[in-house]
Amino acid sequence: MEPSPAIEAAKHIVQVFGTVLAIGMFSSLFAKKLKIPDVAVFLIVGMLVGPEMLGLVHIKANSAVNQFILIFGSSYILFDGGASLRLKVLKEVWITILVISTVGVLITAAITGLAAYYILGVPLIVAFLLGASLASTDPATLVPIFKQVPIKDRVAQTVMSESAFNDAMGAIVTFTVLAVAMGTGEFSLATAAGDLLKQAGIGIVIGGIAGYAAAFVIGHEKYDFLLEYSPLVTLMAVVGAYMTADYMQASGFMAVFVFGIIIGNKDFFGFSMEDAEQKRLEEYVTTTALIMRLFIFILLGAQVDFALMNKYLVGGIAVIVVLMLVARPITVLICAGPDRRTKWSWKELVFMSWTRETGVIPAALAGLLVGMNAPGAEMIASVTFIAVLMTILIQAPTTAWLARKLGLLLD
Question: Which class would CATH give 64-405?
Fold first, then answer.
């Protein structure tokens, strides 16, 4: 009797999952010993165990399993990041967050696009499509870094919040430029602004409702009947908030991020948990976020196409250098520098200029462009992988060092 193809496929997935968990556990321990963010180690290890090297892990980028890991993993990491933020700090820096996650995306996209146009010699609209897909920062990368490196609160929470809020803007700008590139539309600043307000606004409302409801059933003085099931409540709410927002064509990432903010600041809304239950919930969230993180970045590393990346290696590196050392600093200076209410110091501006890792979200956008046969999609995918490797392997490990040099590390 021949084995069922479905059973064989399931066994393969179980084997890969077990392999990734084992590799991720020891990689995390290694990163802890070296005192560097684990996402950088996960990415390198993923490249080593991928099909182009050792061949231990092979899950296709366009497979349902990989898309599930990307969507749920990013959502849970964003929830974890939102739960670590404090409303008191956000009230101080909200102007910078709003400007840098909207106007800042346009500035970064424009500068990077011009660099691609002159360096790679591609058509201008294709160059701007690349710039748009690279313009947003990545919460799946930045949130874990700031959970591991204790940076001054208002700096860490500004960068984390920006990475959550600018995903929607990055996607909107990318698909607006794509419509122009494919001749199916034209750029309209008013339309883009309207789409952003809709996606972000609905996402915020859904996340707020989900957060308040979850806080009520696990933290209300009388009606906390699901207190002992608080880990399951948060898990269910993350899925529910993302899917509800996505169904309403809003930002699911925004919804889970706001949900996390509500849960992390439930005392502000009059809810509280017993210390033992609160500790149990925090331990569950920390462990689950670690599992999601190692899966995302090991698989991302395993999916690096070296042949495609080599095709645009030199020009791609030059474009990413402009993104890191020109586009990002200019964006931070224009968007955060004039914020008189926050009064950013030059050290804080320098740190924010350096910290803008590219990761899961730009990689996902590049994958969508390839699937849609967008103009220059092959080049965009290649340069995006170069951006992921350069920013995570160069910027992530140096985060703590730079913060220490600038005096931004907490005791």
Answer: mainly alpha
Can you tell me the distance from the alpha carbon of 245 to that of 241, in angstroms, rounded to the nearest whole number?
A: 6
Q: For the chain, what are the domain ranges?
A: 64-405
* Other beta carbons less than 10 A from residue 37's beta carbon: 26
- What is the pLDDT tens value at each position of the chain, 411 positions in all? 566 777 887 887 888 889 999 999 999 898 888 877 788 888 889 889 888 888 888 888 778 888 888 888 888 888 888 888 788 878 888 899 889 988 999 999 999 999 999 999 999 999 999 999 899 887 777 878 887 888 888 898 888 888 877 877 787 788 778 877 777 656 566 776 777 778 888 989 999 999 999 999 998 888 888 888 899 999 999 999 999 998 998 888 888 888 998 998 888 888 888 888 889 988 998 899 889 888 988 888 888 778 878 888 999 999 999 999 999 999 999 999 888 888 899 999 999 999 888 877 787 777 777 767 788 888 888 898 889 888 888 988 898 899 999 998 876
